[in-house]
Amino acid sequence: MEISKPHRKIIHVDMDAFYASVEQLDNPDLKGKPLAVGGGSKRGVVSAASYEARKYGVRSAMPGYTAQKLCPELIFVKPRFDRYKEISAKIRKIFLDYTDLVEPLSLDEAYLDVTENKKGNPSATLIAKEIRQRIFEEVGLTASAGISINKFIAKVASDYNKPNGQKTVNPEDVEAFLENLDVKKFYGVGKVTQAKMYEMGIYTGKDLKGKSEAFLTEYFGKSGAHYYRIVRGIHLSEVKPNRERKSLGAERTFSENVASEIYMLERLQNIAEELQRRLKKSKVAGRTVTLKIKYSDFTLQTRSKTLPYYISDADILLETAKELLYQEKMKNSVRLLGLSLSNLNTGKEASKKVKEANEFQVVQLKFEF
C-alpha cells in the first residue's frame, strides 16, 4: 500500500563554516586566511575550519597536528562558545520572524516549516533567499539553504551550493533527485552500511529503489523499511520546535596518554563536576550513566549503567563512573575520558525529580564510609 507524502515546505538553513566565520568576522585580520577553531594543542582536535583551510583538506574532528601538516600556514584560534551562542540567538530570532516551527539542530543549523508562514509568502524558495540576505545584512555571515517537501531532502539540498547558496527540490523533481543521489547521502547509511550496499551493487538511489522492502529488511533489518521509504521521498518527521535533549555530557582529552587508573579517577572527578554544572543549568536529571573511553590507538569504548533513580549530583556520577571504570581491564593507555547522562527526565516534573534525586543522594551518602 502506498504511503501518502504530505508536501510540506521545509527549509534547512546551514551556516557556512560557522565557528571559523565568526572568528573572521570579529577579527578582520583573519579574513581570507586558512583558519582552524580548536586543535592548537598537541592533542587538540579541529572543531571547525574556514573554507580557505578546507582547500588543503583540513576538516572538523581532525587532529590538530594532522591539520598543521596539511596546511603549514594554518592559524589556530581557541573556540569562544559564548560568542557563537550569542550569534546563533540573533540568527534564530530572524527565523522566528517567518515561522514558529523552527527546529534547531545545533548552533549553526535548523529546520523551518514555512508551509504556513508569518509573511504569507507562498514561495519557500523566496523565503529562504530573504532569510539568507537578512542574516548577511544583520549578522555579517553567509548561510546556505535547502528547500523541499521534507526534512531529509532539504538537508541534503542545503549542501549542494555551499557556501552562500541554496537549492530547491520541487515536488516534481524529488524522484529524479533521489534516484541520482549516492546512497551514502541517505540518512541512516553509515560507512559500514555504505560498504555493504556497494558490495551488493547498490550505489545510487535508483539502485536502492530497485530493491523490494522484503529484500532490504532481510539484509538491513528494521533499517531496511526506512531505506525503502526514504528513497521514495517518504519522510514523515515533522519540524519540532521543542526538541527534547536526549543526553548531556562532558569529556576531556589529555595532553599525554594516561595509564594510571588513579589519575583517571582524578580526571573523572573534574568531568563529573562539569557535568553536574551542565545538568543544574538545564534543570534535568537522568538515570543512565555512560563512560566513554578513547584509547591511545584511537579505538573507542563505552560502558553504561542505568540506575533505578534520577541523578544529577557529581558524587553519584563519580561513584557510578568508578564502577564502570573497574568493570573490565583497560586495553591500552587512554587519551580521552568522557561522562554522559541519558534517559533524562525532561518533562514538567524534571525540577521536582532533580530535587528528589538530590535529597535521595544526600541520605545515601550519609551511610557511605
UniProtKB/TrEMBL annotation:
UmuC domain mapped to chain residues = 10-190
The UniProt entry, under Gene3D superfamilies, shows: 3.30.70.270, 3.40.1170.60, 5' to 3' exonuclease, C-terminal subdomain, DNA polymerase, Y-family, little finger domain
Residues at the active site? E109
Could you confirm whether the keyword Protein transport appears in this record?
A: no
Q: Which domain of life is it from?
A: Bacteria
Swiss-Prot/TrEMBL keywords: Cytoplasm, DNA damage, DNA repair, DNA replication, DNA-binding, DNA-directed DNA polymerase, Magnesium, Metal-binding, Mutator protein, Nucleotidyltransferase, Transferase
**Record's cofactor remark:** Binds 2 magnesium ions per subunit.
- InterPro entries on file: DNA/RNA_pol_sf, DNA_pol_Y-fam_lit_finger_sf, DNA_pol_Y-fam_little_finger, DNA_polymerase-Y, DNApol_IV, PolY_HhH_motif, Rev_trsase/Diguanyl_cyclase, UmuC
Q: Give its E.C. classification number.
A: 2.7.7.7
Q: Name one GO molecular function term.
A: damaged DNA binding
Reactions catalysed according to its record: DNA(n) + a 2'-deoxyribonucleoside 5'-triphosphate = DNA(n+1) + diphosphate
Q: Name one GO cellular component term.
A: cytosol
Xref: SUPFAM superfamilies: DNA/RNA polymerases, Lesion bypass DNA polymerase (Y-family), little finger domain
Positions with a binding annotation for Mg(2+): D14, D108
Q: Which Pfam families match?
A: IMS, IMS_C, IMS_HHH
Q: Which GO terms describe its biological process?
A: DNA repair; DNA-templated DNA replication; error-prone translesion synthesis; SOS response
Regarding protein family, the annotation reads: Belongs to the DNA polymerase type-Y family.
Assembly with partners or alone: Monomer.
Q: Which NCBIfam families match?
A: PRK02406.1 (NF002677), PRK14133.1 (NF010731)
Q: What's the protein name?
A: DNA polymerase IV
Question: What organism is recorded for this protein?
Answer: Aquimarina brevivitae
